[in-house]
Write a structure and sequence with these properties.
Strand order of the largest sheet: 3-2-1-4-5-6-7
Number of helices: 12
Radius of gyration: 21 Å
Distance between the termini: 18 Å
Length: 360
């Protein structure tokens, strides 16, 4: 099966969606499918098509205008014969990606369209999504709240499909020599340091609880300011190590007691499933609907606010009960098993086959 997969960015650029796209594409290639990744920013390889490699569209604002230029340039490549029609065109992004791809498809490609939504949607703009996703054959959505929203709007199947942890998070292995400097901690967080990820909440929690050790991995524009705040307020119980390889993150999970994800908005935080694969209870803020993965007081806690007092109340449920930590460990490992990449790839590919053949 020939598959196009398009999004503006691609690894080695960082980001959950970028990593998801590469892992899915590599897995489908390994299964014998011809997958062409179409992007503007990222590292080009033989199986990729880099749109407008000589110009930068990164500074074009707003994102809808940038995406319009991106897909117009893609259509130019189609006209010049650089790409041949796929069996399935899989588009990742938001409404403007889906709309622009649909227009290009109607004019030139004429392939069955499938969308993947990774982030939050604007629930007060239902007509926008009905318009952009008209004619799509299926929509995969990482967030449960977004899946429920689109199910009420669209005629095509809407499938709630969170991303998956890397396989190494399921492995049991000895501590790597280079990671023997990892110190135990009570609370761990992992994410990009953007305002929407609300990593400053971890510092608020650390200020509230000087008796606990906090670690927050990741990088981004917010990190320098948070490091300044740590020095200014002498928050000696929290460290921000920066980015790290997945194996180091996994091995630090083994030295932690609770994962906290303080984001304002998420689809489904992949880091929560990664932590669950390692047996950690997870405390999540109400950045989406999580009743399908977290039961309060059983395997984690979903707060009702973003208040650090509320977050720490959820953390304390587990820190104060060793038996509950052990129960959460078994529960979460079993839950994470259902979200391995092999399962996700098989489900997506099966949908592609059914769309291609017209079977239900």
């Amino acid at each position: 099966m020939k598959i196009w997969r398009s999004y503006f960015r691609y690894p080695p650029l960082s980001g959950g969606m970028e990593g998801h796209i590469k892992t899915l594409s590599d897995a489908q290639r390994a299964d014998g499918h011809d997958v062409i990744n179409i992007f503007h920013l990222g590292q080009s390889e033989a199986t990729h098509h880099k749109v407008c490699p000589r110009w930068s569209l990164a500074k074009v604002k707003p994102a809808a205008a940038r995406n319009a230029f991106f897909y117009m340039a893609l259509m130019g490549g189609l006209i010049r014969g650089k790409l041949t029609k796929p069996d399935i065109w899989h588009i990742h992004g938001d409404w403007s990606d889906f709309l622009c791809a649909r227009i290009v498809n109607k004019i030139h490609a004429r392939a069955p369209l499938v969308a993947s939504v990774h982030g939050r949607l604007k629930f007060n703009r239902p007509a926008r999504y009905q318009w952009a996703l008209r004619g799509y054959k299926a929509v995969f959505v990482t967030g449960r709240k977004e899946a429920d929203f689109l199910n009420g709007l669209l005629d095509c199947p809407v499938i709630h499909l969170p991303s998956a942890p890397k396989d190494l998070f399921f492995e049991t292995c000895a501590l790597a020599p280079e990671n023997r400097d990892i110190a135990p901690c009570d609370v761990i967080a992992v994410g990009n340091f953007f305002a929407i990820k609300n990593m400053s909440a971890l510092l608020d929690c650390a200020a509230l609880r000087p008796d606990l050790r906090f670690v927050a991995y990741g990088d981004g524009p917010e990190r320098p300011g948070l490091l300044d705040r740590i020095a200014r307020e002498d928050l000696s119980n929290i460290t921000l190590p920066g980015t790290a390889e997945p194996r180091r993150i996994k091995e630090h999970f083994a030295q932690a007691k609770v994962l906290v994800s303080p984001s304002y908005e998420e689809g489904t935080p992949t880091v929560a499933l990664e932590a669950m694969a390692c047996g950690l209870p997870c405390v999540l803020t109400p950045s989406n609907q999580y009743d399908w993965m977290v039961e309060n007081g059983v395997n984690g806690w979903v707060t009702t606010t973003w208040d650090p007092v509320d977050i720490m109340a959820g953390v304390d449920v587990f820190l104060k009960n060793v038996d509950l930590q052990a129960q959460a460990r078994a529960h979460n490992r079993n839950l994470a098993e259902m979200h391995r990449w092999t399962t996700k790839v098989a489900l997506i590919t099966d949908h592609f086959h059914r769309i291609r053949t017209g079977t239900k």
